[in-house]
Amino acid sequence: MPPKRKGTGAGQRKGRKRNIAELEDVSAPAMDNTRDEDIIWIVGDSLIYWAAQYLLPWGESALNLHLRNRRVTWKGYRGGHLADVPAIITESMSRLGGSHVPAVVIIHMGTNDLVGLDLLAFKHLLESVIAECKRLLPNTIFMWSGIIPRHFYKGARSQKGIDEKRKEVNKIAKRILARSEGRVIRHDNFRWDMSYLFRDDDVHLDILGQDQFTGNLRRALHFFLRHPEELEYHPVS
Question: At 139, which CATH number?
Answer without folding.
Answer: 3.40.50.1110
